[in-house]
Amino acid sequence: MIDKDTYKTIKSSSKPVLYKEKNSKFYGYTFPVKNEDDIKYSIEKLKKEHHAARHWCYAYQIGTETISYRTNDDGEPNNSAGLPIYGQIQSFNVTNILIVVVRYFGGVKLGVGGLIKAYKTSAQLALEASNILEKTINVHFLLTFEYKNMNTVMRIIKEKNLNIIKQKLEIDCQITISVRKKEASSIFEIFNHLFEIDIKKLKLEI
Q: Which residues of the chain have pLDDT under 50?
């Protein structure tokens, strides 16, 4: 089995989509997020924007190797809002995403089945309005070497078409490179076999 080194996410926040059901209005939003601070900020911003709404239900998923997710019904009946929203995240196979559906109550109760349909549809419409793209999972390596080995290092970087993230070129040089996860082992071995060049794995970059 080939270890997957790509994932799908959204490029930017979507414009709100509106779904109506029996006078209730459901506004669906998507946000690209990488951590809980991003999530908190986006939800608080929406609550200010839609301060007269009744519910701000959401679901999010972050991570590529280790997945973290949460659903929130925000006062709606259990599992009638957050889970249907999260189901669309799974259906579209996206991560590093927050979907919020803001509800203005229209005076007519929809029942649990009606709510599930409304929140699912709102999340689906919001995802369809978003720019979904595929990204690679990358690993960062730190190369440390003396200046005399610069040509060797740069030749390999050019040959293997590696991305330089940052560099400090003095008597003792340091270059941070970004490598696709599936190529990380072979790139590590190439530099590791060179006696005067030290290579250290830094982190998984998404």
A: 1-2
CATH 3.30.230.30 residue ranges of the chain are 6-134
DSSP SS3 for 47: helix
CATH top class, domain 6-134: alpha beta
Parts of the chain belonging to CATH 3.30.70.240: 137-205
Residue given tokens 């689906």 in the structure block: 124
Residues 6+ apart with CB under 8 A from 76: 55, 57, 103, 115, 119
Q: What is the pLDDT of residues 58-87, one digit of tens each?
A: 999 998 878 899 999 998 999 999 999 999
Q: Which two tokens stand for residue 81?
A: 């809002």
DSSP per position, 150-198:
HHHHHHHHHHTTPEEEEEE-SSEEEEEEEEEGGGHHHHHHHHHTSTTEE
HEC string for 74-95: CCCCCCCCHHHHHHHHHHHCCC
| Residue 50: Cβ within 10 Å count | 19
The pair of structure tokens assigned to 122 is 């709102």
Rounded to whole angstroms, what are the CA distances from 46 to 102, 152, 204? 8, 52, 31
Rounded to two decimals, what is the model's pTM? 0.80
Residue 190 pLDDT: 93
The Cα–Cα gap between 170 and 9 comes to: 38
For residues 88 and 117, give the distance between their C-alpha atoms in angstroms, rounded to a whole number. 12
